[in-house]
Amino acid sequence: MAAESQTVELKVAMSCGGCSGAVKRVLTKMQGVETFDIDMEQQKVTVKGNVTPEDVFQTVSKTGKKTSFWEAEATPVQAAAPAAEAPAAAAATEAPAAVAATEAPAAAAATEAPPANTDA
Predict the structure, then answer these.
(1) What's the CATH number where 30 sits?
(2) Run of H or E including 7
(3) How far apart are CA 100 and CA 73, in angstroms?
(4) Positions of the region Disordered (predicted)?
(5) Alpha-carbon distance 70 to 15, whole Å?
(6) Cβ neighbours of residue 53 closer than 8 Å, sequence gap 6 or more
(7) Which residues partner with 44 through β-bridges?
């Protein structure tokens, strides 16, 4: 499956130069890797080459650093958070109006009911 060159992005917990050095060592030895970039600030490792995402994940995981796929953990969360908040805010805005509309006839009926009972 590693016939085509592809890019694999991982989120790797790296807190120091030793951490990034360990990742660099394993990627340098990994077969099929053409280039790689280690971004300490974003905790992101980008690997390009004739590799599979699973192989890159397993290789980087051997460093003992917490590793996950970048797309699965970082990007969707960041992209989905504002989108998820918008519908929730809209629903929260609409919900009281719907509740008020539902309660208003009930309140009117409750107001009308006592005079009917009083007349009887």
Answers:
(1) 3.30.70.100
(2) strand 6-12
(3) 40
(4) 78-120
(5) 17
(6) 6, 8, 69
(7) 11, 39
29 part of a folded domain: yes
Q: Is 28 helix (H, G, I), strand (E, B) or coil?
A: helix
- pLDDT per residue of the chain (120 residues) written in tens, 0 to 9: 445 889 999 999 999 999 999 999 999 999 999 999 999 999 999 999 999 999 999 999 999 999 999 865 444 444 444 444 444 444 444 444 444 444 445 444 444 555 555 555
In this structure, the chain runs to a length of 120
Q: Is residue 13 assigned to a domain?
A: yes
In a domain, 46, yes or no: yes
The closest of 8, 54, 61, 14 to 35, measured between CA atoms, is 8
Whole-angstrom distance, CA of residue 59 vs CA of residue 61? 5
For residues 81 and 36, the answer to whether their CB atoms sit within 8 Å is no
pTM beyond 0.85, yes or no = no
Q: Which residue range is the domain that position 58 belongs to?
A: 6-73
- Please state the domain count of the chain: 1
Domain-located, residue 21: yes
